[in-house]
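Lab manual, section 2.4: Encoding a predicted structure.

Procedure: take the sequence of the chain (342 residues), apply the prediction step described in section 2.3, and record the output as structure tokens. A sample record is shown.
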Amino acid sequence: MREFTGAELAKRIGQLLVSLFVLLVFTFVIGRVLPADPVGAVVGELADPAAYAAMRARLGLDLPLLQQFWIYLTSLLHGDLGTAILTGNPVTKDLGEAFPATLEVATLAIILSTLIGVPLGMLAAFFRDTWIDRTARVVALVGHSIPVFWFGIVGLVIFYATLNWVGGPGRVDVYLEGLVEPRTGLLLVDSLLAGDTETFWNAVHHIILPASILAYSAMAYITRMTRAFTLEQLNQDYVVAARAKGASNGRIILRHLAPNIAVQLVTVLAISYGALLEGAVVTEIVFSWPGIGQYMTNALMIGDMNAILAGTLVIGVIFMALNFLSDLAYLVLDPRTREVRA
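Recorded output:
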């Protein structure tokens, strides 16, 4: 055995870079094999052949495939993801404006789902086969089975249209749009930095329903996995010994169970967070949320390949980064993983 060193860290970073290169190849191939016609999306279906050929040459689609990939790769290294047909802006600018909205609602959702799902899963395991366990399993099953868009529509009908407890579609009411300077892109943060409490509470009013809908789907998965991890640990000798010594359930959870399931939960939470950032597409459409999901959907409708591939690339990079960070978290939460086989 040997201690975990910088060389091992470099190896993991190298694996991350290889995965990133594979993702780049994958997105490039998708852009070339899909039936969508990027040239037709620019010049229109009724353009004459000369204009069509000129635009094809301008986009570099008349070049050999390997040369096209090299141009694609070098452009990415310079931060150039192309120009969006949908808006006429650089794709990087559009994504920079759209992604914070997705990040905001997904982050709030993962916080809510963790605060509810982890304790609920532990309670279900501690009181196995009781009404608490059965209730937790039913709640998790419903959240896992029913589509998010159905929850979103029902939520809008009940809590917005009928009870008026939450805000409607969008991040804020129309009369408040554009009043807060976008410093971070996170409206809740920006409104607080600007001291605009009216916009802040209005944004809270709007975000609570889509975040709760997303949180419920993630909570279902987190609850099930936490219950499984806890049940596995409850059968271990150290828990039996702690109970024999008269330790309370609270002490067993805080001193014994939580540290031992934390490593496994890191992966679950990382996967859930990535899924929320990706799965926000449907929620953003239902709630007219101006995030990356709605942006990609609108781009897909008109065959805007630059926007579609850039969004796919961003989501893929996020997943890889979360997995990489969860691996690093292992080293902090479980010292045993700091040793690897020589």
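Check your result against the sample. The mean pLDDT is 81.
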